[in-house]
Amino acid sequence: MNLLFKHIRWYSEGWIRAGDVRIGQGRVLETGRGLTPKRRERVVEGDGYLALPGLINAHDHLDLNLFPRLGHPPYDNFYDWGRAIYHPDQSPVRDVLRVPLADRLWWSAYKQLISGVTTVAHHNPYVRRVFGRRFPVKVLRRYRWAHSLGHSHDVAKTFARSRGCPFIIHAAEGIDAASSDEIERLDRMGVLASNTVLVHGIALTPAQIRRLAARKVSVVWCPSSNLHLYGHTAPVEALKRDGVRVALGTDSTLSGAPTLWDELRAAQTTGLAEPADLLDMVTVTAASIFGLKDGRGTLRRYAPADLILLPDTGADAPETLVAATPASVALVLIDGTPRLADPAWAETLGLGPPNAFVGGLPRWMTGSIEALRARIVATVDEAILTQNPLWDVMGHESWVMSHGGVMKPS
Ligand SMILES: [Zn+2]
């Protein structure tokens, strides 16, 4: 879509600017004041909106977002939690895993869209047949991964094949000595390097943090998952002080917050990071950690036109970010193509009538969440699905009507 946003405010790399933004060929072509429309370009009024680069969710398991939180925390480490919840022959694990993988992945794609996320790092194998052009969001494609030292064989061998792309592994997820010893074990295996991305890092010691900084290892922070399961989270202030790159991830609904907006607020509540740090974590820092060199995380010239529009309250970008909810997201473009729009933007861009309710408000979203929900309900008892924190947030009209015409705000 070739678009010229007039009179908009936009944020990129620490700065807010006001004026016009031209989008074409899937990229940000030009920004400035008083840009003149070109042929076959749709001119749209951006006054009242703040455009941000599409957010990057640095950690999720896209196959696991139909679950409610499971377990009875607190736990000492991830392995104790895993043993407590993994009962594949019992409800709800048995029921939810009956939903075909493609449907679970699409459900999670909508979770990203309503969070303003345009790129997500999926911690599991890349599913080529699903993550194609029609899939609502971009999924990190170039990566190697291992689940964790305890659940993966040949971590060193997988790492050895990761040259030139990020190597992502859960590590130090817990509060006991065994959790922090994982860092020593990874070090002995030669796995702590500049392309290594450690997810969680709760049990990192000050000496280990200095070692991560020296080796240019990065960390993904998932505060709501951590605080829920262990009552502690990663030492993010120390990581920042020593210069370790930190991105932010939601993890799945098995342990984490429903949306990235909730995750941002959970992160802010810890007091370990300022809103400006958080904005970097979900844009430029995540892009740097994952080696996304195409301009993602920015709205600079020739960056992919992955952007989100939030109502412009006059606040600065970090404050707008941490105050947002699914209901705030007015428009999501990925490579210049609309993926989510409020009714006004759907009409302006000729997308059709709303086909979804997000956070209680009508929205147009790519694909059919109505058909997706119908397929899921045909497989799993709805009493189980309503325990999923997203089930009431991402609906559609007939579902809203059958539930009395009211949706709970997120
Ligand atoms: Zn995880």
User: Structural class, from helix and strand content?
Assistant: alpha/beta
CATH top-level class of the domain at 56-289: Alpha Beta
- What's the architecture of the domain at 56-289 in CATH terms? Alpha-Beta Barrel
- Biggest sheet descriptor: 11 strands, mixed
Query: What are the low-pLDDT stretches, counting only 5+ consecutive residues below 50?
Result: 406-410
- β-strand amount: 15-25%
Q: Determine the CATH superfamily of the domain at 56-289.
A: Metal-dependent hydrolases
Give the SSE layout:
Layout: E1 3-12, E2 15-24, E3 27-32, E4 42-45, E5 49-53, E6 55-60, H1 78-85, H2 93-96, H3 101-113, E7 117-122, E8 138-139, E9 144-146, H4 155-160, E10 167-171, H5 177-188, E11 196-200, H6 206-215, E12 218-221, H7 223-230, H8 236-241, E13 246-248, H9 260-270, H10 275-281, H11 284-289, E14 307-311, H12 317-323, E15 331-334, E16 337-341, H13 343-348, E17 356-358, E18 361-365, H14 369-379, H15 382-385, E19 394-395, H16 397-402
Parallel strand pairs: 1-4, 1-5, 6-7, 7-8, 9-10, 10-11, 11-12, 12-13
Antiparallel strand pairs: 1-2, 2-3, 5-14, 14-15, 15-16, 16-18, 17-18, 17-19
Helix pairs in contact: 3-14, 10-12
The chain binds zinc ion (ZN).
Structure report:
By secondary structure, the chain is α/β, with parallel strands linked by helices. The protein has a domain at 56-289: TIM Barrel (Alpha-Beta Barrel), CATH 3.20.20.140. Helices cover 30% and strands 23% of the residues. It is built from 16 helices and 19 strands. The protein has helices spanning 78-85, 93-96, 101-113, 155-160, 177-188, 206-215, 223-230, 236-241, 260-270, 275-281, 284-289, 317-323, 343-348, 369-379, 382-385, 397-402, and strands spanning 3-12, 15-24, 27-32, 42-45, 49-53, 55-60, 117-122, 138-139, 144-146, 167-171, 196-200, 218-221, 246-248, 307-311, 331-334, 337-341, 356-358, 361-365, 394-395. The strands form 3 sheets. Strands 1, 2, 3, 4, 5, 14, 15, 16, 17, 18 and 19 form an 11-stranded mixed β-sheet that branches. Strand 1 (3-12) and strand 2 (15-24) form a beta hairpin. Helix 3 packs across helix 14 (369-379). Mean pLDDT is 95; it is low at 406-410. It binds zinc ion (ZN). Zinc ion binds next to loops.
